[in-house]
Amino acid sequence: MNNNNNAFLYKDISSLKGVGSKLRFYLKKKNIEKIKDLLFDFPYEVTDRSKITDLDKLEIGKLANVRVKVYKYNFPRVRNLPNKVICTDEKNKINIIFFNSNEFYVRKLLPINKDVLISGKVSFYKNNYQITNPTYVKLFENRDEILKVFPKYSLTDGLGEKRYRKIINATLKNIKGNDDWYSDEFLKKNSFNKIRETFENLHSPQRRLDIHSNDQRRIAYDEIFSNLLMLFKARKIIKVKRNNIKKISNKLIDKIILNFPYKLTNGQKRILKELENDIASKFRMFRIIQGDVGSGKTIIAFLLAAKIFHSKYQVAYMAPTEILANQQYENALKTFSNTGITIEKLSSKTDNKKRIIKDLSDGKINLIIGTHSLFQKKIKFKKLGLVIIDEQHKFGVKQRLLLAKKGGNDCDVLLMSATPIPRTMMMSSYGDMDVSKLTEKPQDRKKIITLIKPEKKINEIIPLLKKQIQLNNQIYWVCPLIEESKKLKFSSATEKFKYIKKIFPNQVGLIHGNLNEKEKKIVIDNFINKKIKILVSTTVIEVGIDIPNANTIIIEDANKFGLSQLHQLRGRVGRGKNESMCILLYKQNLSENAKKRLRILKSTNDGFVIAEEDLKLRGHGDLLGYQQSGLKSFKYADPIHHKDLFSLAEDEIKKCKPDNILEFKNLLKLYDKVEIVTDVV
Ligand code: ADP
Ligand code: MG
Question: Could you tell me if residue 349 is inside a domain?
């Protein structure tokens, strides 16, 4: 297959005939920079001018095509008043209004007594129907020229419809039909059209939005497969042979286990063993632990670190936020107490940064905990042996690659995530990594009871809270937004704070995104030290925060959250020895889908089950859950409707050898996957 024929697609848009700097500017506004980007700007609807509406059947506010005779002009001699042309269809009249036009133009466009087709949006003014600044006018005697059906694109100002269609058509025509990255056999077997035909169909006026059409399936497949190819390549870059094989030592482990008041679960033990094997292997480790909230991932990472400190390896632990970095720092101090391991914390807020940076490069610090500030250029390690990244779902492939590069060939990388990925998407999300799944939770956990209540009954939960406080337990109260917004009718955390403070004086704290890190820390510390009993917050009590004494969580407007997010929030409780409770509040008028969501949540506490259910519900129109879960990583492929394509792509990638990738170079380029890999190497 010749892979170069369609090279023009990857050139800058300005290399197209007729695209000057001005047009380029407008196209850029539409995120169209390369010629190939045009292909993916699919029409959002089809205009059909074959349908003509009688004047007595017009609907206000709708687009319509009318066939009328030009009857009379009205050109006011007053500035700023529009020109008017009265047209009729024998029985009725319609006014065609032109703002900022000149008389001669209008006369030419709509000659008196001529039969014309006019398209535009219908409005009603002073007892008359009118169309203002029609989008299309054509003499009926030229009816052969009338373009009846054509695709409609969303355009910015300065970009005309006709012109845009012309550019797209020219591009489509230029694609060499025989240049495809799949074999004819493969295309035929899957009822895919060749690349040119696929895009032509997707831009054609006959296109109907149908996720199951061959053409939409083909681009979905292209998208999935290009993603897998990229991950395949990323894996090759990362899983290099190391220079020095690490020796494992268990000397510290016993001491740490003494500091750890529990027994490891079997799952934790199994995964620790897997990690140990990775570390002792010839190839660099690149693994992710996928474990539900509260399954105990942190201790696994710490124990792994403990096994390599003896040979002077340093370990960097990166948390997604300051709050979590603080928490893990305190956690590490406890875990490693009496072991002689030096631990420091580094964030953009750290005061003694200079000293810490120096100590890191001198190798005086064994374990450093921080946010992404750990990966600034100026930070040098003496001997970095392991990077641990907590709650990695905020990282894309490119960041993972950069990170692995920073550590060098001897640096192992361990990621941890509590975001459950449905099976269908596992490989297309994490295909570059080895995956360890932690499915069980520590056994001594008490159940979390989930209640679903209408907000009207908020008074009924106050006694429940009083009782929990008497029992010395603590409470999270989650509200979606800080400021009252009438439009969205979200509850406001500040308002709620005042309300709850009245009922529980001196026992309530408030945390939200507008506080700075210091202020946040004070509030969290007060909560940890039990000075406050109820923490009112927006969703800043993010994934990962671990305060076992908090056993109750109230989530307001629960129906506005997706399932995964609700599950993450609920995971803040159920961490201690006491029975826990999650109260989901909703405002009236729950949609069917919202009802189902809340019921699923009530019925299970297993994040993996919830992820699968989330996806199924999404298949029935529940976009909320899907978008919030952070899984919307594909534009064209859909994990429900294209499930078979995900499997097909996985089968195909297994047949791939590193050299094959070149055959798919243009596919990778078309879906913007090349840069991600090549920028890094
Ligand atoms: P996550 O997987 O969500 O990161 P953490 O590592 O924060 O979970 O652990 C949650 C809580 O469970 C912590 O308080 C931790 O001390 C505790 N924990 C971890 N492992 C066990 C275990 N084997 N038995 C009992 N409690 C455990
Ligand atoms: Mg965690």
Answer: no
Domain end among 552, 571, 604: 604
How far away, in angstroms, is 561 Cα from ligand 2 center? 21
Ligand 1 in contact with 567 (CB < 6 A)? Answer: no
- Ligand 1 mean position to 605 CA, how many Å? 16
Helical ranges in 408-554 per DSSP H: 426-430, 458-470, 493-503, 517-528
Q: What is the pTM of this model?
A: 0.74
Task: Report whether 403 contacts 423 (CB < 8 A).
Answer: no
- pLDDT tens-place string over residues 193-248: 999 999 999 988 766 667 888 999 999 999 999 999 999 988 888 888 898 899 99
**What spacing in Å lies between the alpha carbon of 418 and ligand 2's midpoint?**
7
Question: Which among 213, 30, 32 is positioned nearest to 672, based on CA atoms?
Answer: 32
CA of 45 to the centre of ligand 2 (A): 46
Residues spanned by the domain of 496: 448-604
* Residue 655 is assigned to a structural domain of this protein: no
| Mutational pocket test of ligand 1: of 256, 263, 297, 299, the residue with most ligand atoms within 8 Å of the beta carbon | 299
What CATH number is given to the structural domain containing 475?
3.40.50.300
Residue 200 backbone phi and psi in degrees, to 5: -60, -45
Nearest-atom number in ligand 1 for the CA of 300 is 6
Spatial separation of the C-alpha atoms in residues 437 and 289, rounded to whole Å: 6
> Where a domain ends, among 96, 129, 147?
147
pLDDT at 626 over 60: no
294 within ligand 1 shell (Cβ under 6 A)? yes
Q: pLDDT tens for residues 528-548?
A: 999 999 999 876 666 567 888
What is the SS3 assignment for 146-167?
CCCEEEECCCCCCCCHHHHHHH
CATH at 81: 2.40.50.140
Q: State the ligand closest to the CA atom of 262.
A: 1
Residue 288 forms part of a structural domain? no
Ligand 1 in reach of 297 Cβ (< 6 A): yes
